[in-house]
Amino acid sequence: MTDSFTRWIGLELDKKEKLRQLPSVDAVVKMLAGMEEAASINSLFLTEGAREAVSYFREQLLQSGAGSVAISAAAIARRALSIAGRLNKNSLGKVINATGVIVHTNLGRSLLAPEAIKAVQEAAGNYINLEMDLATGKRGERHEHVLSLLSRLTGAESSLVVNNNAAAVLLVLSSLAQGREVVVSRGELVEIGGAFRIPAVLALSGARLVEVGTTNKTGIADYREAINSETALLLKVHTSNYRIVGFTSAATAAELVALGKECGLPVVEDLGSGVLWDLQPAGIKDEPTVPKLLQTGVDIICFSGDKLLGG
Hints:
- The chain is α/β, with parallel strands linked by helices.
- It has eleven helices and eleven strands.
- Strands 6-3-8-10-11 form a five-stranded parallel beta sheet, with helices on both faces. Strands 1-2 form a two-stranded antiparallel ribbon.
- The radius of gyration is 31 Å and the shape is elongated.
- The model is unreliable at 1-11 (pLDDT under 50).
């Protein structure tokens, strides 16, 4: 009994001694600073790697006998370097798209054309007139470069670029319908993507959702019946990533525009992917384009700029 107790005390003393001999995080960082492999690694990652490495070996000592764990300063430094290198590595890497979906939202969406990549490199690698009016020498507006181009491409009177399509829808609703009602077909209460659901975006904007029609059939009469003094706008959502087929029908944008004019209400459409030109020659059918939709008289169109255009 006494002998085994003495051995246990001795083991604990050895373990504590080894714990005391573990180098500090600062000491490990200094060791890494002298290693050629660490020269290109961010100092914050080196510190984090040192901290994790010291913590790892401390835990190994606590969970096992002092004699069963071989610890050296070099071993700690190697582990710290490995951790720091992993942290310093770019998390984005090339993959092979074998999904069968050409424009895959989880794999970077559309690829930029070589000309677009060259333009990005040119703009990012040089001083440019981002917010400078070269004609007057005064401060300009950064949005003007893309807004005028968008208006020419689509035929819109004006344009605005924000972070994503969900943000665009939110801004429209909060600006035009906060505290009032927005009429939407039940068949168009979609999830935009990334967990952005139309009812949730409506709620966040402060607007009140008024569902009309059914999942598979919603006519213009359904919208008309829902309009009252609290109605702020009519919202149409293009179901770009799925189809309801069979016994189904939906009010067209042109019908909604006519109703909106009759009742003095703006019509807003969330077009989703935002096709700028007819893709039927490429085999993609039933995808409305922004210019054609604008010709129907829709007041505001929201769409993504990264899915089909890339970037």
